[in-house]
Specification:
Elements (H helix, E strand, L loop, with lengths): L3 H18 L16 H13 L7 H14 L3 E5 L2 H11 L7 E5 L4 H9 L3 E5 L10 H11 E4 L2 E4 L6 E4 L11 H11 L2 E5 L7 E2 L2 E2 L6 E5 L12 E5 L2 H11 L23 H12 L1 H19 L5 E3 L6 E2 L6 E4 L7 H10 L5 E2 L19 H9 E3 L11
Parallel strand pairs: 2-3, 2-6, 6-7, 7-10
Antiparallel strand pairs: 1-11, 4-5, 8-9, 8-13, 10-11, 12-14, 14-16, 15-16
This protein binds pyridoxal-5'-phosphate.
The site of pyridoxal-5'-phosphate has 14 residues, from helix 4 and helix 5.
């Protein structure tokens, strides 16, 4: 049963969705759908005509270069998807079997899975109160409580395992407060690998997300701001790490015109040229997508400013968000009404969804170490992602 109050908030939300995102009566409005133009068609056709559709070709080289230019990273290595990008980034950052890696409790499952693929254990952290990403303030006091400094770095005093890395994730496009995080991690010797899967086009101060840590990763899955069908990339400013990423993702083959020698157990994580062709076209259109998402966010922000019971989640001060998924929160005391509200708007054809179930609540991660998760619990309980496709906006 949906309470009267939930029905009232639900109909207020419906009114906003109708005015901002349009009428969903004829056709449902999805949470996020990609936008393709003649440019994408032309570049993919050209790639097929070239016959270079697989692991080498001009597009995959161009795509890496375009990413370097746009993000300001010295090196961008395209790979098969964002999860593999994280796996290889953690590996070259030095994460070993038996380590612990700090990850947000509120994230897509890939963030924790990539840690597990390295044989390490995810150790879950709380969110900030203003953004869904990790709270650096809480992290700082938490590490003082649970950490024991050792010669090799910080050790979790309860499990005796080294804490070798941290994966800040810029959730829904809102940048984590990287400056204090980098300072804190430098003092403890913790490697910073940014999961920037959701934040292509988001900047912390004047730096692109994913370029502040030792390494960063992007995703070009179909629901992200730019898609290659499936795809990802690793970003870094360190040449030796970039070489290592390139080597490990291309089966660790020692370059030679005809001899097949591999000097490590690498992976076949190369992005196919065909996918990169789509990506080259999409990256050219990124400024258009960003402008449309920003005006969509402005329209939502304005509309929710006078809706009682719902608050719009804004970009943090000093940062520029890509507003990948526009998000609102049900006021905390009414968090229990959230699912009733979701029911109403989804029935009406608006693709709205809650944030992820906290990772430590999933069966495979239920025994992993974790900080107190009060803020993450609240985000899990009261947030709603709104329809956010760039196609919902006319060209600004
Ligand atoms: C999309 C996403 C990834 C990577 O996803 P792939 O589908 O493997 O490209 C990783 N982390 C987060 C937070 C994501 O949203």
């Amino acid at each position: 049963m949906t309470s009267d109050y939930a029905t009232r908030i639900g109909s207020d939300l419906l009114a906003v969705l109708r005015s901002v995102a349009g009428d969903a009566a004829g056709q449902p409005i999805p949470l996020h759908e990609p936008s393709f133009s003649e440019l994408e068609q032309r570049m993919v056709r050209d790639c097929i005509a070239s016959t270079y559709v697989s692991s080498i070709g001009r597009y995959v080289d161009d795509f890496g270069t375009m990413l370097e230019r746009y993000t300001g990273a010295c090196f961008a290595i395209p790979v098969v998807n964002g999860t593999s990008a994280l796996q290889v980034a953690l590996t070259v950052a030095g994460v070993k079997a038996g380590d612990e890696v700090l990850v947000p409790a509120l994230s897509f499952v890939a963030t924790a899975n990539a840690v597990t693929y390295c044989g390490a254990t995810p150790h879950f952290l709380d969110s900030d109160s203003a953004i869904p990403g990790i709270s650096v303030e809480r992290l700082s006091s938490y590490l003082r409580t649970i950490g024991r400094p050792a010669k090799s770095g910080l050790v979790n005093r309860t499990t005796d395992r080294p804490i070798s890395a941290i994966v800040p994730m810029h959730a829904f496009g809102h940048p984590v407060d990287m400056k204090p995080l980098l300072t804190l991690c430098a003092t403890y010797g913790i490697a910073v690998v940014e999961d920037a899967a959701e934040s292509l086009g988001s900047f912390y101060s004047d730096r692109h997300t994913g370029t502040l840590g030792l390494l960063g990763t992007l995703s070009f899955n179909g629901n992200k701001i730019v898609t290659t069908g499936g795809g990802g990339a690793v970003l870094t400013n360190e040449e030796h790490l970039a070489r290592r990423v390139k080597h490990l993702t291309t089966t660790a083959k020692v370059p030679h015109p005809w001899r097949f020698v591999h000097d490590a157990i690498g992976w076949n994580f190369r992005m196919p040229n065909l996918n990169a062709a789509l990506g080259c076209a999409q990256l050219q259109r990124l400024p258009e997508f960003l402008a449309k998402k920003r005006s969509l966010a402005e329209a939502y922000r304005r509309a929710f400013s006078d809706v009682r019971g719902l608050s719009f989640v804004d970009e943090p001060a000093g940062s520029r968000s890509n507003f990948w998924l526009c998000t609102i929160r049900v006021w905390p005391r009414d968090a229990n009404l959230r699912d009733g509200i979701l029911e109403i708007v989804n029935q009406a054809g608006y693709g709205c969804r809650p944030a992820w179930t906290l990772l430590p609540k999933l069966p495979m991660y239920s025994a992993c170490p974790r900080a107190p998760l009060d803020e993450a619990e609240m985000w899990e309980a009261n947030s709603i992602n709104l329809p956010s496709s760039p196609g919902l906006m006319r060209s600004p």
